[in-house]
Amino acid sequence: MSRPTQKPAKRASPPSSPPETVSHIWLIKAIAFTILAALICGYITLCLLFYQGQWQLVLHPRRAATKPQDTENSWIHFGPDESATPQLTGIWLPAAPGTRYANITILFLPGGDGALSDFNPTLNRLHDLGLNVFAFDYRGYGHSAGTQPNQLKMTQDADSAWKYLTTSRAIPAQQIVPYGAGLGAALATHLAAIHPTIPALILDSPKGDLLATVLHDPRSSLLPVRLLFHEHFPLTQPLATLPTPKLLISTDKSSGSVPAAFRTASDPKLIVEFASSSEALYSQTLTRFLDQYLAQYLVQYPPQPTTTQQLVPTPAPSATKPR
Q1: I need a surface site. Which of 103, 126, 195, 216 has the fewest CB within 10 A?
Q2: pLDDT in tens, 70-79
C-alpha cells in the first residue's frame, strides 16, 4: 500500500514592515525653504519695479489737457522719431528787432515738475528783457509726446532743442545761452559741457545729484538704492570743471544757504541769492551778466562801463519813517 504523499508545509509569511512616516523636521524645512524662496522672488521683483519706475520718485510730469493753439507766437513741433513724427512741442518768443539782446537766444530747459506752462512768469521776464526765448516740453510733459520721462530721454530732448536752434533756425552756437531751472539745470550744464562754444550758462534754483533725495525717501528704505538708482541728473561734478561763464541763481528760501553745487562750481561764476522775489533785481542781475560776457553780440546799445565789479544787485533801500 502506497504511503500518502505529505503536503508541503506552508511557509510563514514575513512580518509586514510598519508604514513609513514623514519626518516633521523635513516638512518644516520644506515649508521654510518655500517661504524663503517666495520672499527672495518678491524682493527681486520689488527691486525690478523700483529700477523701472524710479523716475516717479524724482519726476512729476503734468500733461496738457488741450492741444496748443496757434497764437502770434507760433508753437514749434520738432524732434522727429523714426517715423518722422515730431515728438516735442516748444514755443518761440522772438525779440523785437533792434533791441539790445536781439542777437541772443535763451534755450530754456524747464524743471522736472509740472509742465512748461508753469514757467510762464520766467519766460515772460526773459522775453521782456529783449531776448529771443525758445522753450519746450520734454516728452511726457505738457504738449509733447506721451511717454514715461527719464534722465536719458530728457537729455536727448535737450540735445534735440539745441539741434533745432542751430540747424533749423541757423542760430550760431555763440549766441545761444542755455537757461536751466530745477532739474533743467543739470541738462543745461550737460549742453554747456559738450558744446564749448556756448558763451554763457544760467542756472536758476537748481536740482540735481538726486541720489541723496531718493535715499531719504521712506519708500526706498529697504532697497539697495545705490546699486539700482540711475536717474542722477549730475550737477556738482560737471559744474566743478566747466569753464563756461555761469550765472547761478538761488531762490530756495527753505535751505537758507547757497546750493553746494554752486559753492564748488569753477570760475568764472556769479552767485546770486534772492531772499525774496523781485523782478527789478532779477532783471538787473541778468542784464549785467549778459553785458559782461556777451558784449560782442549786443546790438544798437553798447554796454555801459560800471565803476565796480560787484555784480550782485543791491536791494532797494528801506522806507524811512516820517518824523
Answers
A1: 216
A2: 554 578 999 9
Q: Write out pLDDT tens, residues 20-45.
A: 665 678 778 888 888 888 888 888 88
Q: Which of 273, 232, 282 is nearest to 255 (CA)?
A: 273
C-alpha cell, 223: 532697497
Q: How much is the CA Rg of the chain, to the nearest whole Å? A: 33
Q: Which amino acid is at 320?
A: T
pTM of the model: 0.80
Task: Report which of 142, 157, 158 is spatially closest to residue 193, judged by C-alpha positions.
Answer: 158
What is the average pLDDT across 117-139? 95
Using alpha carbons, select from 170, 175, 171 the residue that is nearest to residue 104.
175
Are 100 and 299 in contact, with CB atoms under 8 Å apart? yes
Domains of the chain plus CATH, in order, are: 57-61+71-297 (3.40.50.1820)
Q: Cβ of 161: how many Cβ atoms within 10 Å?
A: 26
Helices and strands counted in the chain (H then E): 10, 10
Kindly tell me the sign of the dihedral angle through the C-alpha atoms of 122, 270, 201, 105: positive
Q: How far apart are CA 271 and CA 185, in angstroms?
A: 14
Q: Which residue has the cell 559738450?
A: 194
Strand, helix or coil at 193? helix
Instruction: Provide the residue type at 272 as one letter.
Output: V
- Residue-level length of the chain: 323
